[in-house]
ABC transporter ATP-binding protein
Amino acid sequence: MEQLLDGKEIVKSYGEGREKQLVLDHVSLEMERGGFVSVMGPSGSGKSTLLYTLSGMDSDYSGTVVFDGSTMSGLKEETLADLRRTKMGFVFQQPAFLKNLNLLDNIILPVMRENRKNGKAITVKARALMKKVGIEGLEERDIAQVSGGQLQRAGICRALMSEPEIIFGDEPTGALNSRSAQEIMELLKEINEEGTAVLVVTHDAKVAAKTKRVLFMQDGKIVSELVFGKEEGDDLDIRAEKVMRRMRQIGI
Ligand SMILES: Nc1ncnc2c1ncn2[C@@H]1O[C@H](COP(=O)(O)OP(=O)(O)OP(=O)(O)O)[C@@H](O)[C@H]1O
């Protein structure tokens, strides 16, 4: 399959002099178009930092990241912002929604800012996405009037509005109970099956078990990788057990 994302020898540090801390230590990572990858590892191992460099949210690193044919480190901030806006979707632990807007308006806000002329079409699209992710009927609700799982579904809708090539998720299920977490992962799986690549950072073996490929990080390096095959099938418990076994083997 064609490659979507290619990170090579990414090195990233925070601080200066004696305070300097190496957070990404020559990390290389390839991801194919339509891939479904998770990144696991102990707290502080560099997972979120890796996601920020791969997605162009952080440009202060050495090494190269090529996304969809563009070398991101060589792009002007404006071009990079355009790339992020049009080809990438972001889902965080909790969506940063505005309290004074209802769910629908929060979902359409970023796209409306770009393209006010097509307000009607944008709203129609957002409503269709809300239906698709199972939050139809909640359009007019305040963000305080929905559950965490519903809010995250709305976050996913917002990320899908630009029809991105990839969704980056930084602990997208981190604020949810295990049932809602699995429902959100099922949704991301469906979105992936429709062709969007998904890269999620998670602490949860059952979340990683939903993806097709798991990368394990330790001390700023990818130390192991697991690709699910026919052997595990779709059985989530077997897949999660395989993830946990690998974590025990590598001591994380
Ligand atoms: N803006 C920053 N300034 C200084 N140090 C930072 C900054 N962001 C992260 N770090 C440090 O970089 C290291 C890696 O952080 P990162 O958030 O990537 O880890 P993580 O694996 O995602 O952790 P967690 O699972 O706890 O979210 C940590 O030691 C963290 O303290």
